[in-house]
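ok so I'm stuck.
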Amino acid sequence: MNKNTLRKLNKIRKLIQPKRLKIAEQILIVLFIAVLIPMIVSGIVINNINKHAMRRQLTESAELVANVVSNEVDIFARTATNELEQISIALNYFPSQESKKAYIKTIQNTFASYDDLKLVSKEEDAERLDVENKANNKFTITVPTKDNQYLVATFRNEDLNEHLFKSLEDNARQIYVLDSTGKLIASHKFSEEIYKQSVDLIPEKITDNNVVIYGDLKDQPLAYIHKTKPDVMILVNTTEKITRNTINDSRIKLLMAVFASALSIFIVVALYIYFMYINIRQLFKGIMAMSK
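replied:
not stuck anymore, here's the structure
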């Protein structure tokens, strides 16, 4: 075996042989294992826990939004019904049908909330107006009078939208209100694709007057509430984008906090080890001086 081969083998042997680390290098390795690795593992665990907590929070907030819209529907229906009942009581004091219709016309011209206000003599006529209004994207409330007639009020869906979602203008969720036939009568942040997806995932068995989380989308909590008075269904869709942005924002804040904590611990421990290392070096120097 020639000298060049022996030289190469010696170099390889030196590379393979474990190198004796200096004290500072050993301390840095211990610091990395004892501080940074536990912090990284803790960050991963906390991040997963935080992700599940955020999903739960999004689900609970979807239920809260559904209840808010449900309350707004109740307020709108109750207020409109009370107004119509007051008008119905006032109609009892008019002697003729013509005077009643003139009074109703005056009310309609005075209050802009009514798109149309009519007095019909048969229940079939009231039902026909309701069907026509639904076809024209309008909302109907009917109140019977004492003389077996029906006072029919028509509202525009735009006015209904403005009333229902006034307190949710800044909410990024998509909200849909459907009538008894499944026709959309009000919406917030409307999207055709997501609306169809929300409707398609509605279960066959419906629970009345309670908020229900439905669908099988893990990161997209869907909620519905089916009201019986008035007969409407409210759908709340927390889109995947909202969930992703919420989780990512929380994750960034969490990682920044973990990083700041790890950096603080690392600096404090590093300074402590540095001064300890200096003392150890001085001790070794003293020992070497005494040995000489």
